[in-house]
Write a structure and sequence with these properties.
The model has no long low-confidence stretch (mean pLDDT 90). The protein has a domain at 27-98. Helix content is 80%, strand content 0%. Helix 2 packs antiparallel against helix 3. It is mostly helical. It starts with a helix and ends in a 6-residue tail after the last helix.
């Protein structure tokens, strides 16, 4: 059953879910692209920026998939993307905690 059924196909709920997830997906994708560009220019933070950028791209995929799951019950794929995103978030948090501080 598609997630739209849980919303009882209420138009304002569907539109809100679709719009916010689409905007979040676009923003996360932009953050990921900017981070990857910056990683190429800053060798001392390259690994950290790449990891955070890939995490942002994973979040973009997660939000993009949320727009699909409204109409199509692709919950297996949804679970895989959410699991990968969660693992990436934990890895990014550990990497960020271990990163050396940079003086301003």
């Amino acid at each position: 059953m598609a997630r739209g059924h849980a919303f009882l196909w209420t138009p304002w709920l569907l539109i809100t879910q679709l719009a916010t997830n689409a905007v979040l997906a676009a923003a996360c994708l932009a953050l990921g692209a900017i981070g990857l560009r910056r990683a190429a220019r800053t060798p001392e933070r390259r690994r950290l920026l790449r990891g955070l950028s890939l995490l942002a791209i994973a979040f973009a995929a997660l939000h993009a998939l949320d727009t699909v799951v409204i109409w199509t019950p692709a919950y297996g794929l949804d679970a895989v993307v959410r699991t990968l995103s969660a693992l990436g978030a934990v890895a990014a948090a550990v990497a960020l905690a271990r990163a050396p501080r940079v003086s301003p």
